[in-house]
């Protein structure tokens, strides 16, 4: 398809999938492509496309998969991408894109499933990346800071100690005020002590006999 210009009839608008990956395509992505409302999959990766991502790409409401990776696209990511509610895969890695990443629950979900979708675009900034748009590094998106983790650990151990103390106090009060429980507790303790004493005595006797036994 290199250096060829093709024309398509009205049936072109009923396409559900376009895969022009690895075709050495040049130029920009035509804005007319956004009129393909029934398109489900669009793959233009591994070409030499330049220019911007069409602003009205969000009009392709049926789009489920979008791969524009490994090109030379520049400019900002169109905010209309956040409107693609059926989009389940997106990859714009290794271009020359700049500016903030559009906010939106859909794009956040896609990033969670494919964290490399923005790789190779050093000019991109803002969540979910760790570089804010002022140029400084932010803590990992969706990760807890060290102070938050320390606070949670402190509350955990405090709750653990409090629970142990309360439980021990309840047991001691029961033994102190309830005579039958106290008698039962001492009975169990005595039996356990007797068993340990018997086992230890037998062990000493066996060891003494082994020492006295001639080799």
TrEMBL record:
The chain crosses the membrane at residues 155-177. Belongs to the RLP family. It holds the Pfam family LRR_1. It is a single-pass type I membrane protein. PANTHER family: LEUCINE-RICH REPEAT-CONTAINING N-TERMINAL PLANT-TYPE DOMAIN-CONTAINING PROTEIN, LRR RECEPTOR-LIKE KINASE. InterPro entries: Leu-rich_rpt, LRR_dom_sf, RLP23-like. This is Uncharacterized protein. The keyword Repeat applies. One of its GO terms (cellular component) is membrane. Keywords: Brassinosteroid signaling pathway, Glycoprotein, Leucine-rich repeat, Membrane, Repeat, Signal, Transmembrane, Transmembrane helix. It comes from Eleusine coracana subsp. coracana. One of its GO terms (biological process) is brassinosteroid mediated signaling pathway.
């Amino acid at each position: 398809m290199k250096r060829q210009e093709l024309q398509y009839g009205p049936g072109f608008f009923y396409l559900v999938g376009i895969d022009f990956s690895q075709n050495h395509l040049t130029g920009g992505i035509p804005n007319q492509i956004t009129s393909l409302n029934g398109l489900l999959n669009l793959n233009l990766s591994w070409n030499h496309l330049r220019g911007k991502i069409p602003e009205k790409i969000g009009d392709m409401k049926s789009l489920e998969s979008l791969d524009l990776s490994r090109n030379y696209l520049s400019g900002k990511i169109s905010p209309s991408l956040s409107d693609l509610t059926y989009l389940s895969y997106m990859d714009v890695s290794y271009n020359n894109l700049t500016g903030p990443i559009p906010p939106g629950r859909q794009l956040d979900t896609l990033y969670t499933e494919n964290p490399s979708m923005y790789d190779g675009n050093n000019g991109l900034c803002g969540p979910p990346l760790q570089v804010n748009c002022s140029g400084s590094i932010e803590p990992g998106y969706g990760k807890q800071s060290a102070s938050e983790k320390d606070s949670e650990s402190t509350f955990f151990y405090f709750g653990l100690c409090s629970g142990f103390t309360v439980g021990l106090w309840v047991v001691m009060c029961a033994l102190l005020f309830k005579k039958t429980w106290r008698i039962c507790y001492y009975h169990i303790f005595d039996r356990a002590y007797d068993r340990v004493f018997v086992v230890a005595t037998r062990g000493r006797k066996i060891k003494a006999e082994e020492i006295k036994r001639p080799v």
